[in-house]
Amino acid sequence: MRKKLVAGNWKMHGSLAENAALLAALKPALEGIKAVVCVPFPYLAQAQAALADSSIAWGAQNLSEQSKGAFTGEVSASMLLDFGCQYVIVGHSERRSLYGESDELVASKYVAAQAAGLTPILCVGESLDERESGVTEAVVARQLDAVIKLAGVGSLANAIVAYEPVWAIGTGKTASPEQAQAVHAFIRSKIAALDADIANQLVIQYGGSVKAANAAELMAQPDIDGGLIGGASLVADEFVAICRAAAK
């Protein structure tokens, strides 16, 4: 039985004071419920100190595919481990679209994360133009294939996949539960064609304007195993409600 997992992606938000208040509110409200917060690099130490004795894990939003070297401004997997990270987001749509990360680069980052013992949260998803052109499955398959080609399907036993329709991120639009479920089912069936056991245990999160108001209906879908939450993860009551909906 897959356990649902909700991860918050703070993106480029937060301050020491705001984070302290948010984490202080989340800890007691989520006691006994496994959740993750992926925070900006400068706040990893703060998250580590605040959450070390809680059921909330923490992680980063990106990493370098390189292990060390003359790569100014980059952060390696081993650096994330120094701050107790268990998870790292790879291939978020904003990294792909705003910073030109290719499928191949995302796959290299995924491999670097796993090699260090981190659990990658691999993001896949289509733009509005791609959805309207009817190529959603082809786009998602291409993004998955780049990882499988480099790391093998077996690597997904130690990874999370997050389906994020790009047109539903930060827009207020949300894929209907049926639309989201259809793509989640496609992802699982694609993996099942290679390894049924891995497909059955693979956690596939949904990301895209998830809120307390729509979380329960999304989480009730058979192939949706939690969420990768953006804006709502910055509001304690919203994030707690989403986590509780997933835990039911």
Q: Percent range for helical residues? A: 40-55%
Unreliable residue stretches = none
- Mean pLDDT across all residues, rounded? 96
Quaternary structure = single chain
H/I helix tally: 11
As laid out across the biggest beta sheet, the strand order is: 7-6-5-4-3-2-1-8
Q: Write down how many β-strands occur, each being a DSSP E stretch of 2 or more residues.
A: 8
Report the portion of residues in β strands.
5-15%
Protein structure class: alpha/beta
Radius of gyration: 17 Å
Order of helices and strands: EHEHEHEHHEHHEHHEHEH
Distance from first to last alpha carbon: 13 Å
Tell me about the largest β-sheet: 8 strands, parallel
Shape: globular
Write the layout of secondary structure elements.
Elements: E1 5-9, H1 16-29, E2 35-38, H2 44-51, E3 56-60, H3 77-82, E4 87-90, H4 93-98, H5 103-116, E5 119-124, H6 128-132, H7 136-151, E6 160-163, H8 177-192, H9 196-201, E7 203-206, H10 212-219, E8 226-229, H11 236-247
Parallel strand pairs: 1-2, 1-8, 2-3, 3-4, 4-5, 5-6, 6-7
Helix pairs in contact: 1-2, 1-11, 5-7, 7-8, 10-11
